[in-house]
Specification:
The protein has about 475 residues and is of the alpha+beta class. Helix content is about 25%, strand content about 25%.
Length: about 475
């Protein structure tokens, strides 16, 4: 579950743009671990390398050296539509009447079945099961004599979530859908370079400065003229007043050192933890977070409750993605491969804070690890409301029948995962601590209220 792709773009003459893209993708690795890719433009000639695995597994000195040019885009992928195949790895690169076109995409188009059918009926061949290839072909065949015009034409037909970086022969574009489901931001690199990324955490490692976030419906072009931006959103439309950044960016997706809507993600998560403590107090001796995504939530809970914060689960940070598959015995060990409890929990009453519970398949084994380490009581607190509905906007949240909160009550979930008590942050509590009181955020996974229409037959594996 719980991943979303990361995209990056750079225009920086005289700079090793491939190397900077590599390090930026490293910083965005948390948004996807299945594949990675970089495409550069050198005087109108494209150079592309991509593969399955982590950024560090896909790239090395030899292949980075071949990615020459002053412009580049990059992508790190978690599949939401389309399976884990090299054909689905990004960026996508094709030749068009306007020259090279490469696309990196974060999100899901909710009208992909219709768009895909239209392309096939027009005789356009598709080689993958990803909606990102659909976007690439739509842009290649869109109306207009310039990329500016073709991107605008594409946006009139596309529905759903898309944050894009686009590479052409002499420019890099960034495009954010009119609802702003997925984040996208702009940064400044030295005197003449500009960068674009899913999150601001990608800028520090490459020496770039955060400038601002792109607005929903905005297009930004980076080229020899610097930065040009314009708004495509109809100010009289519903989207003009109803932006819908995924609220799960605050709960889990975004790195804690990123800035979203002008706010520190880490600080927002601490506020979630404090609100959770107010709503669901517990008598306990220690507060721990499931590392690393729930650490900030747990710190907030501890601060508000007055119960000491501590470590009890040690995470193996070197597991990541591997092509060496565990045998059945290792699969049965489950989370024990990833987490190991400290041995000093004997007789302790533990508050275990997690960011969310989706399928419920990992919570039970984590609780069992704490009990094996001697915990007397385990009280689980979840820093988000129950997830009862699937996501169609770029997150593999599983089908509704796989979501534990859609099929069990809170008491039933508590019994299922083996905790002494279970409490979720309320939807009102979550809204109270995020920017704009939650009025500019998609909360469909909690409420079932989707900002745009969706074809519920659409999902991962649909075209496999």
């Amino acid at each position: 579950m719980k991943e979303a792709c990361g995209v990056f773009g750079i225009y920086a003459p005289g700079v090793d743009v491939a190397r900077l893209t590599f390090f930026a993708l490293y910083a965005l690795q948390h948004r996807g671990q299945e594949s990675a890719g970089i495409c550069t433009s050198e005087r109108g000639v494209a150079h592309l390398h991509k593969g399955l695995g982590l950024v560090s597994q896909v790239f090395n000195e030899d292949n980075l050296h071949l990615l020459r040019g002053d412009l580049a885009i990059g992508h790190t992928r978690y599949s939401t539509t389309g399976s884990v195949k090299l054909l689905n790895a990004q960026p996508y690169l094709i030749e068009t009447a306007l020259g090279l076109l490469a696309i990196a995409h974060n999100g899901n188009l909710t009208n992909t079945p219709t768009l895909r059918r239209d392309l096939l009926q027009r005789g356009v061949g598709l080689t993958s099961s990803s909606d990102s290839e659909v976007i690439t072909q739509m842009l290649a065949g869109a109306a207009g004599d310039t990329w500016d015009a073709r991107i605008a034409d594409f946006m009139r037909r596309a529905q759903g979530a898309y944050s894009l970086t686009i590479l052409t022969r002499d420019a890099v574009y960034a495009v954010r859908d009119p609802w702003g489901f997925r984040p996208l931001c702009l940064g400044k690199l030295n005197d003449s370079g500009w960068v674009l990324a899913s999150e601001s955490c990608a800028f520090g490692p490459i020496g770039a400065d955060f400038v601002r976030e792109l607005e929903p419906g905005e297009i930004v072009r980076l080229d020899a003229n610097g930065v040009t931006s314009w708004q495509t959103r109809d100010q009289n439309s519903d989207t003009a007043e109803h932006a819908a950044l995924c609220i799960f960016e605050y709960v889990y997706f975004a790195r804690p050192d990123s800035i979203l809507e002008g706010h520190s993600v880490h600080n927002v998560r601490r506020k979630m933890g404090r609100q959770l403590a107010r709503e669901h107090p517990a008598e306990a001796d220690i507060v721990i977070g499931v590392p690393d995504s729930a650490t900030a939530h747990a710190i907030g809970y501890a601060y508000e409750s007055g119960i000491p914060f501590g470590e009890a689960l040690i995470k193996n940070r070197y597991i990541g993605r591997t092509f060496i598959q565990p045998d059945q015995r290792m699969r049965d060990l489950g989370v024990a491969i990833k987490y190991n409890p400290l041995a000093d929990l004997k007789g302790e009453r533990v508050v275990l804070v997690d960011d969310s519970i989706v399928r419920g398949t990992t919570s039970g084994p984590i609780v069992a690890l704490l009990r094996q380490a001697g915990a007397k009581e385990v009280h689980m607190r979840v820093a988000s409301p129950p997830i009862r509905y699937p996501c169609f906007m770029g997150v593999d949240m599983a089908r509704q029948e796989q979501l534990i909160a859609a099929n069990m009550s809170v008491d039933e979930i508590a019994a299922h995962i083996g905790v002494d008590s279970l409490g979720y942050l309320s939807i009102e509590g979550l809204r109270s601590v995020v920017p704009f009181d939650g009025t500019r955020h998609c909360q469909a996974c909690f409420t079932g209220d989707y900002p745009v229409g969706v074809d519920e037959s659409f999902g991962k594996g649909m075209f496999e």
